[in-house]
Amino acid sequence: MTEAIPRRTLGRTGIEVGVLGLGTVKLGRNQGVKYPRGFALPDDSAVRDLLGLAADLGINLIDTAPAYGSSEERLGELLPGPRERWVLGTKVGEEFGAGVSRHDFSPAAVRASVERSLRRLRTDWLDLVLVHSDGADLEIIEHSGALETLAELKRAGKLRAFGMSTKTLAGGLRAAELCDLLMVTWNLDHDDEVPVIDRCRELGTGVLIKKALASGHAATGGDPVRAAFARLLAHAGVGSLVVGTIDPDHLRANAVAARACLRRDSSRAGGG
Questions:
Q1: pLDDT per residue as tens digits for the range 145-163
Q2: DSSP 8-state symbol, 5
Q3: CATH number of residue 114's parent domain
Q4: Cα separation of 173 and 73, whole Å?
């Protein structure tokens, strides 16, 4: 039997997630992405196998977005098992079509996006919904009404927790005060946003990490991965590292690395 990865609670949300989450951009989009090599979209059988493997490894957090092409629709069709097994996170504010991203953070667009994601994912509720920032974090926070709209949708039972995938230090620090959770960039080559994670820890705001392996530009096995996971997972404010892959071997290796890092930390804490 496969050893499951540990779980952590996302801040004050009470939502438990595996310390690794599965990013699913590669299930639905292979244009305009920043990975080092091109790739073909996996067929339905490969997606089913990957999602089944994720479940076996103890991964329950699935990260998707309307900007990820057909990812939401494919997950709605192919995600195995009962809905309660999964923590489904999606986003609002960005669309991708004909090779171009378009952004709309208005209340009307946010509401329409959430309703469409519910249909595409074939679910009655979304666990996590994040604003998919275009980089103008403070402008979105202060003037778009996106976060206020997500708060309304949470009260209406459409989603369990809301937040923002931020791109700036100032935006992250402000969003930490207003959101249930954030998604921020942190890897061995980029630690500018660590103060955001520190602040989230103080406030009880949940944290998801994106680009933990620098969008595939870090090595996909061995010491670089373990070094990244060890550093990031040592921070008590971090809930889960969202890593995108369609390679089962990479997913298994990432789970092994995460378990090893946390087992080592636990041993040290216990004096072993």
A1: 999 999 999 999 999 999 9
A2: P
A3: 3.20.20.100
A4: 33
Q: Please indicate, yes or no, whether the overall pTM of this predicted structure exceeds 0.90.
A: yes
pLDDT at position 1 is 56
Rg (alpha carbons) of the chain, rounded to whole number: 17
| Phi and psi at residue 114, to the nearest 5° | -65, -45
- Residue of 68, 86, 186, 229 with catalytic role: 68
- Indicate if the alpha-carbon torsion angle 113, 119, 121, 126 is positive or negative: positive
Decide if 2 is inside a domain: no
> Residue 140 in contact with residue 73, Cβ under 8 Å?
no
Indicate the number of domains in the chain: 1
What pLDDT score was predicted for residue 37?
Answer: 77
Cβ-count burial 232-264 (b if 16+ within 10 Å, e if not) = bbeeebbbbbbbbbbeeebbebbbbbbbebbee
The yes-or-no answer on residue 68 being catalytic is yes
In a domain, 212, yes or no: yes
